[in-house]
Amino acid sequence: MSLSSDRETPLDGLRRRIDELDAELHKCLIERAQISVGIAAARLAGGATGVSFQPDHEAEVIRNVVERHEGSLPLTTVEHLWRELISASLTLQGEFTLHLDGSADLLGMLDLARFYFGFSSDLLPGADAADVVGSVAASECDLGLIALEDRAELPWWRGLSTDGAEVIARLPFLVLDDRPADMPALVISRAVAENVQRDTLVYDARWSGALPGDLMSEGLEVVSFHRSASGVDALLAVSADMSEDEIFAACAEAGAEPDVLRMIGGYSAPIDVEGDADEDFDTALAEG
User: What's one GO MF term for it (predicted)?
Assistant: First the structure.
C-alpha cells in the first residue's frame, strides 16, 4: 500500500478547514444566542415587556454587512443569514406574530416574510392591508407586512398613527437586480423604541382635489395613492430633515398644499447597491 494514500491532499486540507470554520461559526452562534437571552433578562428586570424592535439598529447591522462584504458569496445570502439571526434573537425576547397582507400575492408575501423574519416566526394572513393595520394596532408587540402598490384599492394608511400602528421599515432593504424576495412592502409595528433614528419619514397626505404634479422633484416620494370622488389620498416618503412647513411649501410649489398631513412612521432608507442612485448610500457609509 502506498504511503502517499495516508497523506492529506490539498482537497482534504480545504475540507478540513471548512469543518474547523463550521465549528467556530457554531460556537459564535451559541454565544450570540446566550447574549440575546441576557439582553432579554436585563430588559425584563428593568420592567420592559414584549419584544423590542430596533429597526434602525437592524438597518445599521446590514449596512455594515454590505460594507464588509467581498468575494463570490452572494450578498443576498449573507443578508438572509443576518436577518435570520436577528429574527431568532427577537424570538428569544418573547413571542410575536407577523400579520400578512392577504390582498397581495401570497407566494411573494411568504417569500418576503421568510427571507426577512425567518422560519421560526409565527405568520398570520389578514384579509387585506387595513385588516393588518387593525390587528397590529390592537396587539402589544406584533408586526405587519403590507405590500406596496402604486395605486391602492383603499387608503389603508389612514389607520396608522404614531401612537398606534406605524411604519417602521421598507422592504426590500438591499436593492439589487434579480434578487429574491423582491416584493415592495412596508413593515408596521407599535412596539418601537422611542429613540429610534429614521432618515425617512412617512406621511398620510390628503387633497380634496387632484394630486399635485411633480412632487418627486420637490423631494417628496409618492409611495402609494388612492383616488376617490372626494379627492386623493397619498402615502408620502420624505427626508427626515424636512419639516412639516417645508413639506407644505414643497407641495404648494408642485401645485397644491394637502388638506391633511399626518406623520405615520418612518424607516431607514433602503440601500441601492448596484444602481446609479447610490450617492446617498455612499455618503451614509462615509459619514459612519
Answer: chorismate mutase activity
The single-letter DSSP state of residue 14 is H
Looking at CATH, the fold of the domain delimited by 200-267 is given as Alpha-Beta Plaits (3.30.70)
Phi, psi of 33 (to 5 degrees): -65, -40
The whole-angstrom distance between residue 124's C-alpha and the CA centroid of its chain comes to 18
How far apart CA 221 and CA 150 sit, in angstroms, is 11
Q: What does the alpha-carbon distance between residue 101 and residue 37 come to, in Å, rounded to a whole number?
A: 31
Q: What is the pTM of this model?
A: 0.89
Kindly report, residue by residue over 53-93, the tens digit of the pLDDT. 889 999 999 999 999 999 999 999 999 999 999 998 888 88
Give the whole-angstrom CA distance, residue 78 versus residue 50.
Answer: 28
49-193+270-287: CATH, from 3.40.1620, 3.30.43, 3.40.190, 3.40.50: 3.40.190
